[in-house]
Design brief:
Number of domains: 2
Strand order of the largest sheet: 1-2-3
CATH superfamily of the largest domain: DnaJ domain
CATH class of the largest domain: Mainly Alpha
Oligomer: single chain
Helix content: 40-55%
CATH architecture of the largest domain: Orthogonal Bundle
Distance between the termini: 63 Å
Shape: elongated
Length: about 240
């Protein structure tokens, strides 16, 4: 009987996990896996206790309670490893476009700040139109818009003309020194963040933006610049 109950519980958890996977972003999925693991451990502990294997059931039950956040003896920060930056957003702004990057999902969104499409969300503009806009903006805006297009449509350059509209023109130069306020926005942090927070945000973003991982050279450079500016306060 206990074996049947364990098998039934496993099937239910598997069904729930597959359903969650189909509709969730990585952040929600991590929470779901944690919760499923907690309930699974509790179910296993109950089954082991029923069959008399209490020595195994007790630590397994404690682990399940810790995963669910119901065990007061769980190590500090246990849940934070699963939910380290909920809703944390990085923002980069140029004269023509403003971009946001969600740390958890890696999703990029933005809007046009000037010109005929002022106020329009980038997601609402087709790729062909955005490609044409590249030739009419400054180098820094072009680099940022190209980074967005790389994430939305990786093959967009195949249909560009190879000139400025291809996003392969001159390396974008900053329009001026980055302020501390801009650096906090780039890393998605609040003013006064600790050195550990700065380093953590930098690592998270570089995993998504480093050119070796298929990310954006421009955005990676901005993230590195923001980290250097903010860490000077802690020296």
């Amino acid at each position: 009987m206990p074996t049947i109950l364990i098998g039934l519980a496993a099937l239910i958890l598997l069904w729930w996990g597959l359903k969650l996977l189909a509709r969730s972003n990585p952040h929600t999925l991590a929470i779901g896996v944690k919760t499923a693991g907690g309930y699974g451990a509790l179910a296993g502990a109950v089954a082991l206790a029923v069959t008399g294997r209490v020595a195994i059931a007790v630590p397994l039950g404690i682990a399940g309670l810790a995963l669910l956040g119901w065990w007061p003896g769980a190590p500090a920060g246990f849940g934070q490893r699963w939910n380290k930056s909920p809703g944390q957003i990085s923002r980069v702004r140029t004269a023509f476009v403003e971009m946001e990057l969600d740390h958890d999902s890696g999703r990029m969104e933005g809007r046009i700040l000037a010109g005929p499409h002022e106020g329009s969300a980038l997601n609402d503009i087709d790729v062909a139109t955005l490609t044409q806009l590249l030739a009419a903006v400054d180098d820094e805006s072009r680099a940022l818009l190209a980074a967005y297009l790389d994430g939305r449509e990786p093959r967009w350059r195949e249909h560009a003309d190879g000139g400025p509209a291809s996003g392969r023109g001159r390396h974008a130069s900053s329009s001026g020194p980055m302020t501390q306020e801009e650096a906090y926005e780039v890393l998605g942090l609040k003013p006064g963040a600790s050195a550990d927070d700065i380093a953590r945000a930098h690592r998270t973003l570089m995993k998504k933006l480093h050119p070796d991982q298929g990310g954006s050279t421009y955005l990676a450079a901005r993230v590195n610049q923001a980290k250097d500016i903010l860490l000077r306060r802690h020296r």
